TrEMBL record:
Family matches, as InterPro entries: GAF (IPR003018), GAF-like_dom_sf (IPR029016), HATPase_C_sf (IPR036890), HATPase_dom (IPR003594), His_kinase_dom (IPR005467), HisK_dim/P_dom (IPR003661), HisK_dim/P_sf (IPR036097), PAC (IPR001610)
Name of this chain's protein: histidine kinase
Every PAC domain range: 123-175, 247-299, 538-589, 663-714
Reactions mediated catalytically: ATP + protein L-histidine = ADP + protein N-phospho-L-histidine
Coiled coil spans: none
Amino acid sequence: MQSSQMSPSGVFDGPMPWTWIVANRYQSTMTSAPKEAHSSIMRFGESISMGIDLHRAVDAIPGLVWTAYSDGRIDFVNQRWCEYTGLSNQEASGEGWRAAVHPEDLPRLLESWESIVASGRPGEAEARLRRFDGVYQWFLFQVSPLIDAAGEIVKWCGINSDIETRKRAEAVLSMHEHCFQLIVDGLPAVMLLMGPDGELVHVNRHALEYAGVSFEELKTWSTRIHPDDRQATMASVKAAMASGEPYDAETRHLRADGTYRWFHSQGFPLKDNEGRPVLWYFFLTDIDDRKHAEALLAGEKRMLEMVAQGLPVLDALCELVEAIDNDCHAGILLLDHVGSNHFRRGGASPFAAKVVDELDGAPLTGKLGPCATAVITQSPMFVEDVASDPRWPSVWRKLSEATELRACWSMPIMSRTNETLGVFSIYRKAPGVPTQFQRDMMGRLAHLAAIAIERVCSDRALKRSEECWRAIVETTPECVNVVARDGTMLRVNSAIGVLLGVPDADALIGKCFYDFVAPEHRQAYIQFNQDVCEGRKGFLEFDIITVEGERSHMETHAAPMLGSDGGVVQLGVMRDITARKRASEELLRSAALMAKAQQLSGCGSFYWCAADDEIIWSDQLYRIFDITLGTRITLDLIATRVHPKDLHLMTDMVERSKVGENLEVDHRLLLPDGKIKYLHLEGLARRDSRGQVEYIGAIQDVTDRRESEEALSRLRVELIHVARVNSLGALTASIAHEINQPLAGIITNASTGLRMLGAKSPNIEGALETLRRTLRDGRRAAEVMTRLRALFSKKMISNEAVDLIEAVHEVAELLRSEIRSNRIAMRLEADDDIPIVTGDRVQLQQVILNLLINAVEAMRGVEDRLRQLLIRIEWDGGDQVRVAVSDTGVGIDPAQAAKLFDGFYSTKKEGMGIGLSVCRTIIESHGGRLWATPNRRHGATFSFCVPVQAQDNLGSEHADTTAHDGRTP
Ligand code: ADP
């Protein structure tokens, strides 16, 4: 407080001699004899008032000087005081001086003054004094007591020194300090000031707030470093302080709420003039979010790598959450869509495992908890405190008790196609809602989980599909191989092993396929493989040689594909076509042979599928029909070649094809050049895989044969006719001869008798004789007739077992060409179990022949309808077998019906009219019956029936022969 000093020379060396005088005196009186000191001062004062022009001296002092009584009244102010304040000595005296003191400062000044006076010791105070112009300036009021010789205080002397400049400097300094503090406190970082030995000397507001403790408590700052970081941090701080080099590190510090956060700590030394650190200031920037974000990013990267490697990732993902924020425990529940929806364990960090295990297998219902609700609503659920939340009391109360977990934040895991795959949850012991960072983290990790889950699903699907393809490839009889550009076999199926004679096909992998290719085909195969590996699909036939040295002819279809190393390789599917090749060569040969044979035989083959209107012809058929080779064959086209009169046969054939009947047709062609051809068609019906009728058949050009057959047939008919006429003639001649003789005798005797009786003298005797001869000849004639009848009835009929079906077949066969040439469709129908009859086979066949010839002749002129001949053999179940011959011929006139069986009745130009009468005789001689009936529409039916049992008139031999066969009822 004392600013004046005495120089060594003993003279005043400062602006305030009064102060020194008073202080000096005061000090001397205070230490040895205060009262005397006071009196000496008094005396000095008195001496002033006693005549020394002290006032002038005081006025000369450049400071403001005044004296006052102990009660505060001023009795003197110097000239400078008056000049400064603008008050006169008089105005200032007493308490007038107070008017010059700043009203704000006056109370404090008076208070200080009182306490100084009370203490009796020098003192000082600061206050603003008003200048004459009204401007206030700061002054230091220094006051000392004037003590008389008796040591009593007689007065107080004061001097006011102008401290305006200092005050201003102080104000500026204070403002700077204030600003500095504001800046430091306003820094977003924690700031610590430490001494060179690490002792904490100052911290900013942020530091106190973060730590939540007092400055004193904060002095043990090292205990608030995370235990894992503490040792290293202390060591590096110490090293920095020892070296004087700046400090830089990342450390976790304890926060008021008990959590640790990451800080970037930077320390800088403040050095003295000699370069020694005298102070260290540390800035700690909160990088916790950045650290978490970095950890999250690094974790995500790691997880993605794991996903890419196909490693299970869900547990690691949950553990990552705990590593980023050790207050957060994570769990993943997956949705099991098989059957009803259930939760399935996906993954968990160690602390959340209990929760996840508890929910594993739980059905997905809204009451289950936030996890289930997040899945159902497909939106995040952030529950501050599940234990106290009334929505999920049952499960969560228990879980919360067991795990102490309170907060539960759940986020649905959505697939790319917006399907819910599961739920990602974070559980925390402390109730609360997630920060923005935590929400973002959950979103990102849920997305990562979706990627991982979908990857697992697609891996599984891929594996299944691979297994499926493997099974297909293994099951196929085709040989499948993957060949590298250099011929190395990369993959093979077991069929290749079988083909090459290597039981373990996998042993072929790594071997060169070229080695198995026959040497003469190897170069072509190598070129083929190169082409495929350059991206072209291909097909090749080549031979391979198996390990046993056997040769097989192969065909391969190959396509380029990407190999496991990214290069193009050949995927080949090979087939052993040795047998097929042989067969096709065989086929070619036989096709050539057949074509030749068809050409030579005049027979062509066809395929016809009526449903598809598809007709395939052999070349020979084109030639037969005179149609350009290769022309598409249709029924309409065929119809243009069929003889107009036979078109109905074609129509009938098409009709019959609809029910799938086998076809056999004879018809004619009328070719464009007017030539007529006779064809015989036979078609075998079968059903294709769709059940449609298709025909495979042959058409033979039978023109030559038909013409010769017709000639032959005509000849045969004539012969039959002639034979019939001849046999009848011979019979007639023989009968005539036999009868003629007795008749001649009768006539001769009768005329002789007449002459004898007519003579003038009748010769009675002679006449009697001639009458007796006439009688004899008459008897002879009757005998001839009897003999003839006997001959006819006994000798012409033999007794034998006759199978009528067989007999009819034989006769029909005899007339086949006749029937065919007349374009008649003949059909034979017979009941089952037709019994054998007994009779004369030749005579019965003679009857059948007659009836068939008559039927053919009756249809010969028919052109407007089908010529159909039906022979039906029936058994009435008793003793009669009936044979009926129906035709669609001219029919019988009912008026003439009775005459038909009369001898010599004929409506034909060259008919003899004895056929039917002989037939009737034969049938009746068999004990049967022959009759005719007109058909309902066209033609007539001639029927006969014969008994099964032998007739008496056929003799006993018949009975023996009828028993030859068990078929006779
Ligand atoms: P011919 O055949 O020599 O005329 P037949 O005694 O065999 O002698 O026949 C007598 C007649 O009966 C024939 O001329 C014919 O008028 C008639 N006739 C025979 N069979 C048939 C038949 N199937 N359809 C129509 N008339 C027939």
